[in-house]
Design a protein that fits this description.
By secondary structure, the protein is α/β, with parallel strands linked by helices. It is built from 37 helices and 25 strands. The strands form 5 sheets. The chain has a 9-stranded mixed beta sheet with strand order 8-7-6-9-10-12-11-13-14, with helices on both faces. Strands 1-2-3-4-5 form a 5-stranded mixed beta sheet, sandwiched between helices. α32 crosses α37 (939-958). The longest helix is centred in the middle third of the chain and has 23 residues, at 349-371. The protein is globular, with a radius of gyration of 33 Å. It starts with a helix and ends with a helix. The relative contact order is 0.07.
């Protein structure tokens, strides 16, 4: 009897309803967006289109070269060339190239670019192919339009790379507004990366561990020079680039010497130039110091290519630099592991403000509003701001600190305007913006970013003359510490008022600092801790990172090894708060507020007297990676001086935030009592117990694919006796056929009379005997059956996969055909009433599981003891059970109507059939009316009710 005929045999009651659970399907997606491009990051794209713009214009080749620059594969270009996939109807001299769902390109006759763009826009083919962009060029001018927004670009052909951010959606990159408006930072990163790689080719020793710091320091100096020469910090525009160009030989033989002399001049006071033998041509450079040019001024040797790169970087307009964006990008240049993701680590300003606004900026703005034009209140606010300390103990390239500084300067400037003191020097010192960063280059970039931000703010609010007059020389005060934040004493780096700090060094950039250098002179100042520490789940932590957590948690809890790395920052912040009132807000993966980590971490924080001051529930922390890559995060703030009302932010449908005032925010980021959901051996509610599936421990010998079942050549009688359909998570969700040998003790003798079955059973015996585990070796006594056997095989079974995609709006679950066996990659309710499935299939249950069970990467990770046994269900009447049973049957019938579609097909959020969606909506309505007499407004309300009910039920159970 064939495998397929076995599956299709008649079932008991409801067979038609359940048949689609095990249908065979083979799905082949069409050649679409995800597989027609190489994955390219923004910096690589900028580099490719810049190269294209510098080459002689070839009208016939331009459209294909342009598409190739955005990552289109050679096979895609080939199909477009041949006309197979080119849908263009443009009839110009060179025709047009139209890529479906992407762009319509045409090369225009000389001087006819505008008319050609209009023709492309009006083309019926453009509409049919759903093109997002149209582009026309004649090699002299280039014009393009994004059709949905109406946004346009018009520029000289050679300048179109300046607008590359406009075209990034062509590569599947969903950019944030700030980057599209300023593509300079990516261009600068791209050029600096080329230079960095080229210098390491010619100076391999500079890439070694011993000299890596020197190389990074050299790059930091270059960045400063490029910025300074374009902003008049150096007298005259282009001083650094022009001097290198004029004084160094074209063959680059002495380029390193010229740069070294320039650096030496910037480390020497003007009055000391003669004694130091500073060349006259280098004497034009001002004294900078601040540690940036102290120490060795040696430069790496330059090839002709490297010299060319350097001069090209200098030709960029560095007045456009955004220190909050640029720092995040450039830090990857000096990191071998991150260079492959160059330009992807940009953190958007709106995301950073999700942390900083509720942390302290919103309150400052409220106080500004309250002050109005009252000079005394404005002065008090300005004095208060001068004493505010912002501390990021995982500062990277300083983007949180830079944004905080710029926002505070904006508020201060408004105060000065209202007090009629517009040109007043700032009272906000850079040294109040403190950070810790593990990587030395990132630490240097953070200092540079803050220096640049200070200059730009002075320029904007006080004018160029005053900004320049006070900029140089740089201060040698240290406010960014290079070191391991989890092993350093935060109190010594950002001390509370009145705490003395050891003076460690007088060199800001060169010395490896493990302590802050200066104390705060701000009695009564506030301290706010913020940042985006490394997340790293327990599986991916290095030995050193495990040791970091051990030092913090070993004496507090035995379960610390399960914690994410970011938990160390939360605990250190709580310890810091014991010494001085403070509020700390970190971005974190949402896993620390889900599942097993909650009862490990949060009682420790709450026991220290801290509460959650505000929080933002899960949202995507987007970056510049293609296809909208990003990690799902939360923002959590803790404080030992929390206000009565706390802010809970959730993501709105339009991408904004909805805020709710809450009396309490628990560790699951729900406006509900503080409670830790812990595993239960039995259900809290009157529902059927859920168990794991059966564990074979068989070396694969009891499990069979359809092909393996066929090769056994069993008779129809043997197949019926010894073979059962097997379902784990994958088989159930994707409709994959799999089987198992299911042999009772009474059948064992008969089964092994078949040589094919005997061979498999003997292989199981040998595998178990060879195991290092005693329990597995004991299983060798009964090799004909599963080692962990939890069902007899004749029960009705409701299956629940252990892991499923976060993209689904409902958890996959279903009724299996008779005599099905569940593997241990799924959970099961054996002989359970069907209304139990209605609970599992509800939005309420999915929200509970997502909150209390945690996730595997981004997928839902189901747990019977933590998710099902804790699920709070109110009293269910017989009428309720009948209604829910009908709902479950309707869901199954709706699935069956689309046979042979699999669960994966049916629950694709973009393709879910209307009748199935309606069946789930009906199920949700019936269930939610049992809970509160109406539908819930949103998931937030669902969670609040579930936690309220859980608290009452557990209290009652305890009593």
């Amino acid at each position: 009897m064939s495998a397929q005929s076995y599956i299709a045999s008649p079932f008991q009651k409801c067979s038609a309803i359940y048949s689609n659970c095990f249908a065979v399907r083979s799905k082949h997606s069409p050649d679409g967006e995800t597989n027609r491009r190489h994955t390219m990051n923004a910096v690589e794209i900028e580099s490719a289109i810049s190269d294209l713009a510098q080459q002689p214009f070839d009208p016939a080749e331009f459209p294909y070269a342009f598409l190739e620059a955005f990552g289109n594969k050679a096979t895609t270009i080939k199909r477009l060339r041949s006309g197979t996939s080119n849908k263009s109807d443009f009839s110009g001299s060179w025709g047009g190239v139209l890529q479906t769902n992407n762009i319509h390109i045409a090369v225009a006759e000389a001087g006819a670019v505008t008319e050609t763009l209009a023709a492309l826009k009006a083309s019926p083919a453009t509409t049919r192919a759903k093109a997002k962009f149209v582009l026309a060029t004649d090699g002299e001018m280039l014009e393009a339009e994004e059709l949905e927004s109406g946004e346009t670009v018009a520029c000289k052909y050679e300048e179109f790379p300046d607008h590359f951010g406009f075209f990034l959606p062509l590569a599947g990159i969903t950019t944030v507004k700030q980057v599209r408006e300023s593509s300079f930072d990516i261009r600068a990163t791209s050029r600096l990366n080329r230079l960095y790689v080229e210098l390491l080719k010619d100076n391999p020793s500079w890439g070694t561990e011993e000299q890596r710091h020197e190389m990074n320091h050299f790059m930091a100096r270059l960045i400063f020079c490029f910025f300074a020469e374009d902003t008049d910090i150096f007298a005259g525009s282009g001083l650094f680039t022009d001097t290198v160009s004029e004084m160094s030989a074209r063959d680059s033989a002495n380029t390193h010497e010229v740069i070294s002399e320039i650096f030496r001049a910037m480390n020497t006071r003007k009055e000391e130039h003669a004694a130091a033998n500073i060349p006259r041509w280098a004497g034009k450079f001002p004294y900078v110091n601040g540690g940036l040019f102290s120490g060795s001024v040696e430069a790496p040797h330059f090839s002709k290519i490297a010299r060319s790169y350097l001069l090209h970087i200098g030709s960029l307009d560095w007045t456009q630099i955004n220190p909050d964006i640029f720092g995040s990008m450039i830090q990857a240049v000096a990191d071998d592991e991150e260079r492959g993701a160059l330009g992807m680590h940009y953190t958007s300003v709106p995301n950073i403000l999700k942390v900083l606004n509720p942390l302290f900026l919103d309150e400052l703005r409220e106080k500004l509003e309250e002050a109005g034009d009252n000079a005394r209140k404005l002065l008090n606010l300005r004095n208060r701001m001068a004493k505010i300390r912002v501390f990021d103990p995982a500062c990277g390239s300083g983007n949180f600190l830079v944004i905080a500084y710029k926002q505070m300067r904006e508020i201060e400037a408004e105060i000065n305007q209202r007090r009629k003191e517009p040109n007043r020097p700032t009272d906000i010192p850079l040294t109040n913006f403190r950070g810790i960063e593990l990587r030395d280059f990132s630490a240097e970039v953070a200092r540079l970013a803050l220096i640049i931000a200070e200059y730009q703010c002075d320029l904007h609010y006080r004018g160029k003359k005053l900004a320049l007059a006070e900029f140089l020389p740089l201060s040698s005060d240290n406010w960014i510490t290079c070191g391991n934040a989890l092993r350093l004493d935060w109190l010594s780096i950002c001390p509370p008022t009145g705490t003395g700090v050891k003076l460690h060094a007088d060199d800001l950039f060169e010395s490896p600092l493990d302590q802050a250098q200066i104390d705060f002179e701000n009695e009564g100042g506030e301290t706010y801790i913020c940042g985006n520490p490394p997340y790293l789940g327990s599986t991916w932590q290095s030995k050193e990172q495990k040791e970091d957590l051990r030092r913090i948690f070993d004496k507090r809890t035995k379960s610390w090894k399960s914690l994410d790395y970011v938990a160390g920052w939360f605990m250190k912040a709580a310890d810091y708060g014991l010494k001085t009132p403070t509020v700390s807000a970190f971005v974190s993966t949402n896993s620390i507020c889900q599942g097993q980590q909650v009862p490990i971490l949060w009682p420790l924080i709450f026991d220290s007297g801290h509460k959650i001051a505000f929080a933002h529930t899960s949202f995507k922390w987007a970056n510049l990676a293609s296809h909208n890559a990003g990690v799902t995060v939360v923002v959590v703030a803790i404080s030992n001086c929390v206000r009565a009302s706390r802010k809970l932010f959730t993501l709105a449908e339009d991408g904004g935030s909805v805020v709710k005032d809450a009396n309490n925010i628990n560790a699951y980021l729900v406006a509900a009592p503080t409670v830790s959901i812990e595993k239960r051996s039995k259900p809290l509610s009157s529902i059927k117990p859920m168990d794991r599936g059966n564990g074979p421990t068989d070396g694969g010998n009891l499990l069979l694919t359809s092909e393996e079942l066929t090769t056994l050549n069993l008779s129809e009688v043997e197949t019926k006796k010894f073979i059962r359909p097997l379902f784990g998570s994958v088989e159930f969700i994707r409709g994959i056929n799999r089987f198992c040998l299911w042999i009772s003790d009474e059948q064992a003798k008969e089964a092994i009379s078949n040589p094919a079955i005997l061979r498999r059973i003997e292989a199981v015996r040998e595998m178990r005997l060879a195991s290092s585990k005693e329990a597995t070796r004991l299983g060798a006594k009964y090799p004909h059956r599963f080692d962990e056997k939890r069902q007899e095989g004749g029960e009705t079974v409701i299956a629940v996969p252990r892991v499923s995609s976060e993209n689904r709006q409902y958890l996959p679950c279903g009724f299996l055909p008779p005599e099905s066996i569940v593997s241990d990659s799924a959970f099961a309710l054996y002989d359970a009433p069907l209304w139990n499935m209605a609970l599992i299939a509800s939005r309420l249950h999915l929200i509970w599981i997502a909150t209390v069970c945690g996730k595997l990467k981004t997928d839902f990770r189901y747990s019977n003891t933590l998710g099902w046994n804790t699920f709070p269900v109110p009293t269910i009447t017989e009428k309720n059970k009948a209604d829910l049973t009908g709902c479950a049957e309707n869901i199954l019938l709706a699935r069956e109507a689309h046979f042979p579609a699999t669960i994966a097909d049916l629950y694709d959020p973009e393709k879910m059939p209307d009748n199935l969606r309606e069946a789930h909506e009906r199920n949700d309505e019936v269930l939610e009316r049992i809970y509160i007499g109406r539908r819930f407004k949103n998931d937030t309300e669902r969670l609040e009710k579930l936690f309220e009910l859980y608290t009452k039920m557990t209290a009652k159970a305890s009593a």
